[in-house]
Amino acid sequence: MADPDEGFTLIYDGDCQLCLRSVAWLQARDRGDQIEFLPLQADRVAREFPDIPRSEMEEAMQLLGPSGERWSGAAAVERVIGLLPSTRGLQPIFALPGARPLAAWIYRWVARNRKQFGCGEHCEISHRTASPTSEE
After folding, report:
1. Residue of 65, 66, 97, 58 lying closest to 79 (CA atoms)
2. Which pLDDT value is given to residue 21?
3. Which is nearest to 12 in space by CA: 4, 3, 20?
4. Nearest CA-CA partner of 50 in 34, 35, 33, 62
5. pLDDT tens digits along 14-63
6. Domain boundaries, the chain
7. Which residue from 84, 115, 116, 117 puts its CA 20 to 30 A from 106's CA?
8. How large is the angle between the packed helices 99-112 and 74-83, nearest 10 degrees?
9. What distances in angstroms separate CA 128 from CA 18, 20, 102, 123, 131, one per listed residue?
10. 89: exposed, middle or buried (C-beta count within 10 Å: 0-12, 13-18, 19+)?
11. pLDDT band at 115 (very low <50, low <70, confident <90, very high)
């Protein structure tokens, strides 16, 4: 696992089956252990990342960089794609006109509808409790 002081940390919902499948896919491609994958339910998340509201972590994955940078939702996906050699070739797609707003919309839509993608009952419950004004 990557040391959060030296690499990247991806905080995701460890109770979400869609998130778990996505993380497993990313881990299989992170051959250099550039990213530490950390479920938001881990005790150390609140202790080590107190400045990130729990509601933001429940709403979208959070990628934290070695210098304190933070990307959320689709921006985190874009950054992760750029980090991993096997997916880096997809990164230029985000530079196309309108691609970033479209990616953000798709990310939010999938997050809101993730139960339909096999997340399970947990996601329906957490989505009802999440702030309706929260952005990716």
Report:
1. 65
2. 92
3. 20
4. 62
5. 988 889 999 999 999 998 899 999 999 999 999 999 999 999 999 999 99
6. 8-129
7. 84
8. 110
9. 17, 20, 24, 8, 8
10. exposed
11. confident
